[in-house]
Specification:
The protein contains 4 helices and 36 strands. It has helices spanning 3-10, 41-50, 73-84, 280-306; strands at 13-15, 23-24, 34-37, 54-57, 67-69, 93-94, 99-100, 105-106, 111-112, 117-118, 123-124, 129-130, 135-136, 141-142, 147-148, 153-154, 159-160, 165-166, 171-172, 177-178, 183-184, 189-190, 194-195, 200-201, 206-207, 212-213, 218-219, 224-225, 230-231, 236-237, 242-243, 248-249, 254-255, 260-261, 271-273, 278-279. A hairpin with a 4-residue loop joins strand 35 (271-273) and strand 36.
Length: 307
């Protein structure tokens, strides 16, 4: 597409040659006919060195490359990604190699890929996608517009809401309940738990039996939520954080990376860090005091020598 055509879609203004754009890339990638975005002069200079064809920039940034000026370059970049890399569209139907139990109900608009298995009394909603080698257990329910990616498995009696995404090689065991608009990454394990609406779960996350994630909770990669642990609304657990059994993270709380949650965390828009976890400012004060200990010890040793 021409740069001017992209500018019309992004509602921005063009400067420089009306070059032809064939793809969109991140600033660390290289392609002679690509466009990317830059939020500052340093990124713009890097893009020029990388050989990009054009840039999306805010008004405050200057560049010698042909560019589109917009108010929000990140939003414009997301729109470009949707344009050049649209979601894969599936034609409805059941692949000849798929195994569908006689009592299973598959909506006419759904897609079932090669070697997928759908067991007895399972229900697959409208426009749902069951990719290759995925497994849907007995009595499972999958809502409309939900995608179960390759090699993912859903245990007996589990349910997944509408507009969900279950990543490849993710295993959801029997009796789990997944709400609407939930995204789960690759190689996760969810064991008979409840995941409420709007949750986002990154790759390689473990959620144990009896755990409950409140609406809008975000679990970053390699986090663990142990048996019976709960999170409130719109919580965030950063990478490698771990909620111990029967603990509770309050509404709107953010827990830092590698934190072990050994006691309940109260409600509030507070970031918790360290072990045992404290509000971030208190944890930084604790760390500063800990770092000051060697100096205190040296000062005491000097006083003892004088005596």
């Amino acid at each position: 597409m021409k740069l001017t055509e992209l500018a019309q879609l992004l509602q921005g203004s063009v400067a420089g040659d009306d070059v032809e754009i064939y793809c969109v890339c991140g600033i660390d990638e290289q392609h002679p006919h690509a466009i990317t975005f830059a939020e500052n002069s340093q990124s713009a200079a890097q893009a020029e060195d990388q050989g990009f064809k054009a840039l999306v920039i805010p008004a405050k940034v200057k560049t010698n490359l042909p560019h589109i000026t917009v108010a929000n370059p990140r939003l414009a970049y997301a729109q470009l990604l949707q344009l050049f890399h649209p979601p894969l569209q599936y034609q409805s139907g059941i692949h000849t190699s798929a195994i569908i139990a006689p009592s299973a109900a598959v909506a006419p608009s759904a897609y079932v890929g090669p070697y997928a298995i759908i067991n007895e009394r399972a229900e697959i909603g409208e426009n749902a996608v069951i990719e290759a080698h995925a497994l849907v257990g007995t009595g499972c329910r999958i809502g409309s517009d939900t995608r179960l990616l390759a090699h993912a498995s859903l245990g007996d009696g589990s349910s997944v809401g509408t507009q969900c995404l279950i990543g490849p090689h993710t295993r959801i065991t029997a009796g789990s309940i997944i709400g609407d608009d939930v995204e789960i990454g690759a190689r996760c394990i969810l064991e008979e738990c409840q995941i409420d609406q709007g949750c986002r779960i990154d790759n390689m996350v473990l959620v144990r039996s009896g755990a409950h994630l409140g609406p809008g909770t975000i679990l970053v990669s390699h986090t663990t939520v142990q048996e019976g642990a709960q999170t409130g609304m719109f919580c965030v657990l950063a990478a490698e954080a771990s909620a111990m059994p029967q603990t509770k993270v309050g509404n709107y709380a953010t827990v830092g990376g590698r934190v072990v949650i050994s006691a309940d965390i109260p409600d509030g828009q507070t970031t918790w860090s360290g072990n045992p976890p404290l509000p971030h400012r208190e944890d930084m004060r604790r760390l500063a005091q800990r770092n000051a200990v060697p100096k205190v010890v040296k000062a005491l040793q000097k006083q003892l020598k004088r005596q």
